[in-house]
Amino acid sequence: MPRLRFEIAYIGAGFSGWQSQPDGSAIQDHFRKALETALRVSDPWLVAASRTDAGVHAEMQVVAVEISDPIPDLLKLQRSLNALLPKNVGIRSIAIAAPDFHPVYQSVAKVYRYRLWTGDWSNPFLADYVWKIRKLRDPDAFLQNLLALRGTHDFSSFCAADSSAKTRERTIMDAQLAVSDDLIDVWIQGSGFLKQMVRNIVGTLVDLDLGKLTSASDMAGVLSLQDRTQAGRTAPAQGLALVHIDFSQITPINNVMQRAGKGFKVAL
């Protein structure tokens, strides 16, 4: 059966994450319901590249949907779905995919961005999309701790306790820090991520900067402990966004950073 590839953007606030929930409160539930109405089908097969947590945003979530022939008018379908979906969910594009396209198994890299706000005031245009913290005590050390994540490591120190992952080993291809006045963007590119991994990393970065960790003095030390209880807090969900996913050739993170947010940026 033919498959379609959807690129979806959403604001995660008010939803129980991407993955379907019994009460129908997840983004997948709303998307499935809209598909059923637009395509006049029942319970279509669909799978997304990432199970974003409750409150986490996405600028580029990729979803495969299996449909029956004939293939519908894609522009008409896009318009119909956008009319049916909640206002905080939007279909960016729809394309015909290979019959065996699978967003989970075929993705080769994902890029997440976590936003920190260090201003003395609360920016109303950003407040719902950042974690407000105090100014960094040591920005250089913060950056070096972030860069220490590069490479293949056991990330048990940053994995949620209830994770069902068979292995905690993951590869971080690149990590960058972008600072614009009081806004700090933490960028992380990896082949795959554990449950709450990015939020736990950011929480640890902040706690290291504050001198709150007694288990280790830097990120390399926290990594080596391989113990979630010895790392920092879990950063709030609203600061995190899934920004980009690659399926063949890996896009350099600097290119992703330059292109990210077009059409989604909020003026400072």
Features:
Alpha-Beta Plaits; globular; 2 domains
Can you walk me through this structure?
- Strand 8 (169-180) and strand 9 form a beta hairpin.
- The chain contains six helices and ten strands.
- Helix 1 packs across helix 2 (74-84).
- By secondary structure, the protein is an alpha+beta fold.
- It has two domains: 3-97, Alpha-Beta Plaits (2-Layer Sandwich), CATH 3.30.70; 109-247, Pseudouridine synthase I, catalytic domain, C-terminal subdomain (Alpha-Beta Plaits).
List the helices and strands and how they pair.
Elements: E1 3-10, H1 27-39, E2 46-48, E3 57-66, H2 74-84, E4 89-97, E5 109-117, E6 131-132, H3 139-147, E7 151-154, E8 169-180, E9 183-190, H4 197-210, H5 219-225, E10 240-246, H6 253-259
Parallel strand pairs: 3-10, 5-6
Antiparallel strand pairs: 1-3, 1-4, 2-3, 5-9, 5-10, 7-8, 8-9
